[in-house]
Design brief:
Elements: E1 6-10, H1 21-28, E2 33-35, H2 41-48, E3 54-55, H3 58-62, H4 66-83, E4 87-91, H5 98-105, E5 115-117, H6 122-130, E6 139-143, H7 144-147, E7 157-161, H8 166-176, E8 185-189, E9 196-199, E10 214-217, H9 230-240, H10 247-250, H11 254-273, H12 277-300, H13 306-319, H14 322-325, H15 333-348, H16 353-358, H17 366-377, H18 387-398, H19 410-426, H20 431-455, H21 465-477
Parallel strand pairs: 1-4, 1-5, 2-3, 2-4, 6-7
Antiparallel strand pairs: 7-10, 8-9, 8-10
Helix pairs in contact: 4-5, 9-12, 11-12, 17-19, 18-19, 20-21
Length: about 475
């Protein structure tokens, strides 16, 4: 039978009068009593009561980071518990202390899980201080170290504890600055004092910080955010499609929105081609809005919602990357591609290459259809041909374009187009983008050519094809 060898208690901010009797009795009966830190008001009371204890302060100095420190603390506590009769681990706050998380993650096989004594915590102390500044039930409480490595929803009030130094305060300020203006108000809470409002930029400029320093960031809605999160976009979409929202947005369907999805995707591609990061960020936002829009439409018809969209892609990425999230080993991009296609075949039930080709929708635009089919065939190592060999086949096939009767052979034309997409794929180029760029270059060159013809005092309509080509070649050479 596993023995219970460890009890964990919360000693809060250090005011003994706030501790319940069960906590006091547990502290007195501990053997040994382990304090997370000696730099806590309770340490003085314990000494006055002749209650001996050991602290884990040496691990603050010897650990490389907070994760290592919390893990080392848990290991030390379990080691001391094994050596004692009834070990008690005293922490300021059970909810936010990461070393307590580690205790539960690494319970020795011979021990049962720690017993928790309910008691007054840091969180209770802080909430009592700032209750009038927050909305009921809409607050998240995290330690500074946890906050710095987590996602933050600004609609939710945030209480950041253990802001124990100017460096930590500076890190918290920098993290908050990703969403808030430097003039935004936050509340600093220190031992024995009331919350003090100050602009965010002053957060790391105070003279004194200690383990009881905390920061409150009141929640706000998306209309008052300087920068926004995906939650804001979802809230905006919900408001737009509400009964009293936008008349146009509220009546849209997947079919009516279809043209905008394609348009926004191409505008994002154009921004990539233009090498314009600011424009790309803007266009990706437009594309993201279309995804959120379709998720909202799906939700209104009981089909799917945004969580389904995110869950599907997360599940897919985890499942198709066993070399990242599992134990599979790959050594090259080609092996990654092979693994990806094999997993896709398993997901769709396709057993052969032909069956996987049938998974490609014939409703795609022809060029994209050819690209995806070519990609599927790459499952065969022998089909991964040298680009030079494909180019030679294109050259030879071009001589067969004219049939015996002088007409153009459509099958040869189709095969040439298909081979060109194959060549693009084997050259790690996107045929869709290459063709689009070629058309753009032609339009630009044609415009310059037409201007050159006008400058020469000629009319484009009066020129022969050969003369137009001369002007066009000159314009293309200047591109």
């Amino acid at each position: 039978m596993k023995r219970r060898s460890l009890t964990v208690v919360s000693i809060g901010p250090g005011d003994v009068s706030l501790l319940n009797q069960a906590t006091v009795d547990t502290l007195r009966g501990a053997s040994p009593l382990i304090l997370r830190t000696d730099h806590h008001p309770m340490a003085a009371w314990l000494k006055d009561q002749d209650i001996s204890y050991v602290s884990l302060d040496d691990l603050y100095e010897s650990s490389d980071d907070f994760d290592c420190m919390n893990s080392a603390m848990a290991d030390r506590v379990w080691q001391l518990a094994a050596e004692g009769k009834h070990a008690v681990y005293a922490v300021p706050d059970l909810l936010t202390d990461r070393s307590v998380d580690e205790l539960f993650r690494h319970i020795p096989e011979s021990c049962s899980e720690p017993e928790i004594i309910p008691g007054f915590s840091y969180a209770d102390f802080y909430l009592a201080r700032c209750r009038g500044l927050i909305s009921s039930g809409n607050i998240r409480i995290v330690s500074a170290s946890e906050f710095l490595s987590s996602f933050y929803d600004p609609e939710q009030s945030l209480l950041i504890t253990e802001v124990d130094g100017a460096i930590t305060a500076g890190d918290v300020k920098a993290h908050l600055s990703s969403l808030f203006d430097e003039e935004s108000s936050v509340w600093l809470i220190q031992a024995g004092g009331r919350p003090v409002s100050l602009p965010l930029y002053e957060l790391d400029r105070k003279k004194k910080y200690d383990h009881m320093t905390a920061v409150l960031v009141p929640g706000s809605d998306f209309l008052h955010h300087c920068r926004n999160t995906i939650h804001d976009l979802l809230s905006i979409m919900e408001r737009l499609r509400a009964p009293d929202g936008c008349p146009w947005d509220s009546i849209q369907t997947h079919e009516s929105l279809r043209p905008y999805m394609v348009e926004e995707a191409w505008e994002a591609v154009n921004a990539i081609d233009d090498n314009d990061p600011d424009h790309l960020a803007d266009e990706l936002g437009d594309l993201l809005f279309q995804i959120v829009f379709h998720a909202s439409v799906g939700k209104s018809f009981g089909e799917f919602d945004f969580v389904d969209v995110v869950t599907n892609i997360c599940t897919k990425m985890i499942h198709r990357h066993p070399h990242v999230f599992g134990s599979k080993h790959v050594s090259s991009p080609d092996e990654v591609s092979d693994t990806w296609e094999e997993i896709k075949r398993q997901e769709t039930g396709s057993r052969t290459v032909s069956e996987s080709l049938n998974d490609v929708s014939s409703g795609l635009p022809s060029l994209k259809y050819a690209i995806k089919v070519n990609k599927k065939v790459q499952q065969l190592p022998s089909w991964r041909r040298n680009p030079a060999d494909i180019a030679e086949e294109i050259r030879n096939l071009s001589g067969l374009l004219l049939a015996a009767d002088g007409s153009l052979d459509e099958k040869v034309m189709g095969k040439l187009l298909f081979l060109c997409t194959h060549l693009c794929h084997r050259s790690d180029r996107d045929a869709e983008i290459i063709l689009h760029q070629a058309v753009d270059r032609f339009k630009s060159a044609f415009s310059r050519m037409e201007n050159d013809v006008k400058s020469a005092g000629k009319a484009l309509e009066t020129l022969t094809f050969e003369e137009i080509c001369l002007y066009l070649n000159k314009a293309e050479a200047g591109n």
